[in-house]
From TrEMBL:
Keywords for this protein: Signal
Entry protein name: YHS domain-containing protein
Leader sequence residues: 1-32
Organism: Rhizobium mongolense
Length: 170
């Protein structure tokens, strides 16, 4: 049997992570999605914001078309090649929950492509995006685990609806 080099191990790890995330979505894990929110125009995730920057810089940072990665059918922008490479090696770690749709909206079985990349939270190592900052302290921060549990339960239905809607319009 041939030894697996670093590149092959990386591909295997990524494939395994993708399969695990997609098969565990209905069991409280919602790391990845088949549907990625790219808004109403273009095919850019998080309106061009860098998903890695939320974790490494602790702030919303606009990405650049110079540093991109295609993943799950969307183009992701990054502020630097370092961030792009970090995402490429562990996309599940940096991908927003519920395909980048508003976590509060998802918790009540609604999805809107309108998100505010400046309205975000990281809880238990997971990135949550919202449609706006108003009400976050009362509606999410007061009980993030409860909101996430509701959103986790509602996400499969929201995702199916969004996937169907997108398929009908393509």
């Amino acid at each position: 049997m041939k030894k697996k080099g670093p590149a092959m191990r990386g591909h295997l790890a990524l494939a395994t992570a993708a399969v695990v995330s997609l098969t565990t979505m209905g069991s409280g894990e919602s790391c990845a999605a088949e549907v990625v929110n790219t808004g109403y125009f273009g095919n850019v995730a998080i309106l061009g914001y860098d998903p890695v920057a939320y974790f490494t810089d602790g702030r919303a940072t606009k990405g650049s078309p110079e540093f991109t990665k295609k993943w799950l059918g969307a183009t992701w922008y990054f502020a630097s090649v370092k961030h792009r490479n970090a995402f490429a090696s562990e996309p599940i770690r940096y991908t927003p929950q519920y395909g980048g749709f508003c976590a509060l909206g998802t918790s009540v079985e609604e999805a809107s492509a309108n998100i505010d990349p400046e309205a975000w939270r990281i809880v238990d190592g997971k990135l949550y995006l919202f449609s706006g900052k108003e009400g976050l302290e009362e509606d999410f921060d007061a009980a993030p685990a409860a909101v996430a549990a509701k959103a986790d339960a509602k996400w499969p239905g929201v995702e199916a609806k969004e996937f169907k809607t997108r398929a009908e319009h393509n």
